[in-house]
Structures
1.
Amino acid sequence: MPSIMEAEKKGILGTDVVCQIGIVCHDLEKTGKAYAEFFGMECPPVSESGDPERVKAVFNGEPSDAGCRMMFFELGNIQIELIQPDEKPSVWRNDLESKGEGLHHIAFIVKDMDGKLKKLDAMGIALRQKGDYANNSGCYAYVDARDTLKLTLELLENYAD
């Protein structure tokens, strides 16, 4: 199994630019209002994760119809995503129940998602959940890098890029 240092030399993700910080919460509107006030901006609109048939989410290797409500704050070069999961099993619900509200992931935009996931798996960084964007313009994957990097990573692949 390649070490983190070996992968770092090769740039396992092909980027070192964090594009998003994800935060799970129980009350999206309350948390969104606090962020909007903190940043001195209007609350962004609430987004829904989308139709499970279109998203085709897989959680811990099993098909999942879990969803979430989201709010996206655009802050210069980084986006803060607030996530309020529904009650169905998902990476968001699992982490909210086991760790409480707060940091969920940092995200990177990648190319060749499947190739990146294979490399990460070979390093012991396992896939937790994946799915397509609701508008079919890309896909996402959450990987468990807690043992090595001490957090969950999200990979985002935009098909138009």
2.
Amino acid sequence: MMLMYLTFLDDEGDRQKFERLYMAYRLKMQYVAYGIVKDEQEAENIVHDTFMALLDLLDRIHEEDCHKTWNYIVTIVKNKCFNYLKKQKKVQLSQEDIFCEDTRPDIAETVVHRDMAEVLVCAVQKLKYPYKEVIYLYYYNGLSAREIGSMLGLSDENVRQIASRARKKLKERLLEMGYSYGE
């Protein structure tokens, strides 16, 4: 499959760079895409589309093996996944999907819960790298600290510290917005 991509590149240096990106990130991209779309074939299609996009964006990547590159690539993958879900008219990602299941029968409580969930999604989206990615991978994809660490090139302990700081930042942001919750 990689050979097909290389035919689009004229420069040998670009071919080598692309090959290193492909080898380093293909499986991670597949894992992220599958975690979002929950369909192996569509995840493969999204990874393919991402690599096709990377052919045009190759000049923006200066270091193949760094956090900034992974963050750039995973952002493209996520956006393609969310675009796919929108096209399929599936339920849009909400905080309720990420963190909990709503089993309360009371409609008023459900509305309040969904409002809070939307506020929480907004707060998570405003987090910077690596806080947002760690929270997303931990709560939405259900990955362990070890799995997240291997994807982001961090130690397990570092992932746990980042997650703790991210939760603290979220709590502070929610309190600033006037929301409180039981501890």
